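We read letters as residues; the fold follows as tokens. Both lines appear below.
***
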Amino acid sequence: SAHPEKIDDLPRTQRLTLRSVQHLVENLHEAPAIIAVLGLKGRHSTPGGSTFPAVQNLMLSARALGLGCSVFNLPMRGGDELLELLDIPENNQLYCLLPIGYPTDRFGPVNRKPVKAVVYRERFGERWPFAEEQPDTGWQARWLGGDA
């Protein structure tokens, strides 16, 4: 278990992240499903380039279905023990685990910076008129209709 007195001294974001990881580690066995994301070793020059967009799509799909999901890559730091436990062939690489389950809390609002604060045209810092026209809030209703 982590040292709670040291965690309390960290900045808020780091504190929340560490507590979230600790909760996941302690409760991983309760996840109804855990997806092991694998790829063949040596098949791609940028292996994460095709794997992690698929992971993102899976996570978005889970959320749309009301399921919680997170990328969990802490087990990758433990060596080959997990690969052996799952009987993963040697020519495969484990990228991450995706525990999926029913959230214990409601999903909170997604906080994002306004589009105009993060999108530029041609060069960093060069404003894009289209981005400037986008509302700071309520974009879901504008693009998806209703209260999406």
Observations:
- The mean pLDDT is 83.
- DSSP finds seven helices and three strands in the chain.
- Residues 47-64 form the longest helix (18 residues).
- Residues 31-101 form one domain.
